[in-house]
Design a protein that fits this description.
- By secondary structure, the protein is mainly alpha-helical.
- It has one domain: Insulin-like, subunit E (Orthogonal Bundle), CATH 1.10.100.10.
- Insulin decreases blood glucose concentration. It increases cell permeability to monosaccharides, amino acids and fatty acids. It accelerates glycolysis, the pentose phosphate cycle, and glycogen synthesis in liver.
- Keywords: Carbohydrate metabolism, Disulfide bond, Glucose metabolism, Hormone, Secreted.
- One of its GO terms (cellular component) is extracellular space.
């Protein structure tokens, strides 16, 4: 994932698993809309995803 992409739903979760690995990540769709705004409604890149790793 070199370029920015739109990632929604299970694609977003899969990308977080891939980027964060064993560190894990914090994602609560009912409370945390930031990543959805940043990566689903608009395209995001790997550096954006890393901000959500534990």
């Amino acid at each position: 994932m070199k370029s920015a992409q739109h990632l929604c739903g299970s694609h977003l979760v899969d990308a977080l698993y891939l980027v964060c690995g064993e560190k894990g990540f914090f994602y609560n769709p009912k409370r945390d809309r930031g990543i959805v705004e940043q990566c689903c409604h608009k395209p995001c890149n790997i550096f954006d995803l890393q901000n959500y790793c534990n």
